[in-house]
Amino acid sequence: MLPHRDRSALRKIEEELAASDPAFAAVLSQGAPPMRSRLRLITLILADFTTLLMIILGLVTGETGLFLWGLAAAPGLVWAHRILTPRTREDDPGEHP
Description:
membrane, transmembrane, transmembrane helix, DUF3040, DUF3040 family protein, 4 helices
């Protein structure tokens, strides 16, 4: 935790930056997602594709086990997306300005 003096100095710099160049300040406040969250998102998308492929192949080929495993994985993926996907401030209804 920074001392009060440093926090107030940083806050002042932030306010000056927002006043002088609001577009740049907006880009900085969003920031780039960390590599871990990108990797997590890629992994979730690959899992979605695999689950969908299991369900479709299970239906087309008549493999009940493949279809049921894909169907069983779907709720887990929905949960994983809800929990692990980063949300922006505009997406979060619980946060009020």
